[in-house]
Amino acid sequence: MDLMSSAHVALRPLDEALLDALAATAAADADPGEVMPPAEDGSGPGWTDARREAFVRFHHSRSLRADPVESVYAVLVTEPGEDGRPREAVAGAARLAPAPEPGAVEAGLWLGRSHRGRGIGTAVFALLLDEARAAGAARLLARTHETNAAARRLLAAAGTGLEFHGDGTVTAWWPPA
After folding, report:
1. Which site from 12, 19, 142, 160 is most exposed, i.e. has the minimal number of CB atoms within 10 Å?
2. Beta carbons of 127 and 71 less than 8 angstroms apart
3. 143: closest CA among 116, 169, 104?
4. Would you state the pLDDT for residue 2?
């Protein structure tokens, strides 16, 4: 296992140039359902031009508008390239949005398949906690599904309190109540 240190993982606020790279990472290394709300376009599974356009529209409507409703960050990793020199790549996205509880934010994260299982998610979660604190948030909420064992492990290791719900969702608060 090639574990990444936080020195090799960074969050950069999403902009137009990063959105193009993020869309490319999503299409090449993730399923649409992992990175965006379901699109009812009737085109079956996988990425299509319409789904890629919907992905871009989604980010324009959430974080790249004049009055953003959430902060989205490109997850950048620095790794050796084919020539051995450091290369920065977009590995996925992370977000912070207002949570239903006053003084809290909700975190979200997705990584492309080739970046999973290497400690990047753990580093990103720590960076999101730092961003939340810097923004004045007292608590952080994360949601996942009970079938997402990797997310549950990450959240438990970060010291969150996991709450399992009858519909299969899992919520986690940091710090736990």
Report:
1. 12
2. no
3. 169
4. 47
